[in-house]
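pasting for ref
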Amino acid sequence: MNPLLALRAAEIARDQLREHPARWGCLAALLLFGPPAACVVIVVVLLATLAGAGDSSSAAAPNGGTVGDIPADYLVLYREAAQTCPGLDWTILAAIGKIESDHGRSQLPGVHSGENSAKAGGPMQFLQPTFDSVVSRHPPPPGGAHPPSRYNPHDAIYAAAAYLCDSGARDGRDLHAAIFAYNHAEWYV
C-alpha cells in the first residue's frame, strides 16, 4: 500500500474516532472479540456434527440398544435383513416399519392379526398373496415362524427386504421404484 495513502487513511480514522468514539469502540470490540467468537461457534458446530455422527445409518447401537424409537429387536432385524440385499440401507426398512405399524407397536387392525381395510397384515403390512409369493422365492432365514407368517416380525422384515430388492433396490438401482412398488403412493416414496 502507498505510504501516503495509508497515512491519509489513518488521519481519517483518527478524525472519525474523535467525532464518534462509541461507534469506533463497538468496531474495536467486534474486531477484538469477533474472530475468537467465530472460532468458538465453528468448534461447537463441529463437535455437534461429530456427536450426531454416532446416529448415522451405518452406526451400530451399543449393546443392542435402540436408535431413535426403534425397539432393539426390530433394529437387529432391519439391519440383518437389509444385508441380504446389496445396496439396501436398513433405514429404508425401518422407515417402512415405522409408517406401516410403528415398528409393530400399533394396535390398529391387521398389525397383529386379521387385516386392515386394504387386506394388508403384519408389521410390514403385506397382502397375503404378495407375502406368499416373496417367501416362496426368498425363504426367510431361521428365526421366524414355521411356516413363515406375515405377522412374525422376522419373516415380515426379511420378506420386505427381498421384495424391495426384487423391485429395484438391489445395488441402489432404483430405490424410488422399489418403494413405490411396496406402496403405490407417491407420498410414501
